[in-house]
Amino acid sequence: MAPSLLLSLSAALFLLFTCTALAQTAPAPALPGPLNFTGILDKNGQYTNFLRLLSQTQVGSQIQNQLNGTTEGFTVFAPTDNAFNNLKAGTINSLDEQQKVQLVLYHVLPKYYSLNDLQFVSNPVRTQASGQDGHLFGLNFIGQNNQVNVSTGVVETQINNALTQHKPLAVYQADKVLLPAEFFEAQSPAAAPSPGTKKSSPGSNSNSTAGEPTSAGASGSSGRNMGLGLIVGLALVCMGALS
Q1: Is the confidence at residue 227, as pLDDT, over 60?
Q2: By the 8 A CB rule, do 156 and 150 touch?
Q3: How far apart are CA 123 and CA 81, in angstroms?
Q4: 196 — pLDDT class (breaks 50, 70, 90)
Q5: Structure confidence by residue, pLDDT tens digits, 153-195
Q6: pLDDT above 60 for 86
Q7: For 130, phi and psi rounded to 5 degrees?
Q8: Quick one: DSSP state of residue 113?
């Protein structure tokens, strides 16, 4: 009995030390790395046009740089390649560089919103483009039966596919490019001159002496008439004297 008991104890101790050693040498679980905003879009494979705009305007790198230091987070609406393909031909190319930046920023909210949050926000919701050129650049959200629609006043589309939804970043698929209404506002025409107002010609002046030559001419004509009258009068006197 004694040898068997010693053998069992030895085996148990061996197993205990082996398990302890393995536990000490097992690798610790990897810490989550920093969020990669553009990597999330690239991984999904249907956001080539939006990624190009993010790169051209440098908005992508700005969001990435701010992601790990923000307390509010970001919400991004990412238009698919089909959304860009459905735009009228030349829509993006017709925008200047500033408008392209505004367009991309218009797809970014400066706060993290879950889909549930978006159903109860106060409209209009400010975007990263808000305030530029003195314009609102806001988005309106309509929530009903757990469905969320976003409207720009020009475009409306449903938001239902979350590419990621973990604070500080939420990225949602957008099946249409969110074109700001501000891009379509008619420019106010320049104030036209009043119909009763005439432009002064060069050198003209209301207090100038432009009318004086006419006055002088009239005086000269009057003087000549008086002289002629005297001559005629003298001639008649002479003729009367001779007769």
Answers
A1: no
A2: yes
A3: 28
A4: very low
A5: 999 999 989 999 999 999 999 999 999 999 988 544 444 444 4
A6: yes
A7: -55, 135
A8: -
Q: What gap in Å lies between CA 23 and CA 16, rounded to an integer?
A: 11
User: Is the Cβ–Cβ distance between 157 and 139 less than 8 Å?
Assistant: no
For the chain, what's the residue count?
243
Query: What are the tokens at 181?
Result: 């209404």
The strand pairing partners of 150, in sequence order, are 141, 157
Asked if residues 169 and 67 have their Cβ atoms less than 8 Å apart, the reply is yes
What is the 8-class DSSP label of residue 73? -
Q: Residue 18 in 3-state DSSP?
A: helix
- Which among 44, 71, 47, 72 is positioned nearest to 60, based on CA atoms? 47
Secondary structure class of 181 (helix, strand, coil): helix
- Classify residue 149 as exposed, middle or buried by CB count within 10 Å of its CB (0-12, 13-18, 19+): middle
Which of the two residues, 5 and 131, has the higher pLDDT score? Answer: 131
Residue 52 C-alpha from the chain's centroid: 17
pLDDT mean over 65-74: 92
Report the C-alpha gap between 116 and 148 in whole angstroms.
8
* Residue 128's pLDDT band (cuts 50, 70, 90): very high
Question: Helices (H) and strands (E) in the chain — how many of each?
Answer: 8, 8
Sheet containing strand 108-109, edge to edge, reads 108-109, 74-79, 169-174, 162-166
Is 106 exposed, middle or buried (CB count within 10 Å of its CB: 0-12, 13-18, 19+)?
A: buried
> Which tokens in the block code for residue 162?
């979350």
- C-beta neighbour count of 211 within 10 angstroms: 8
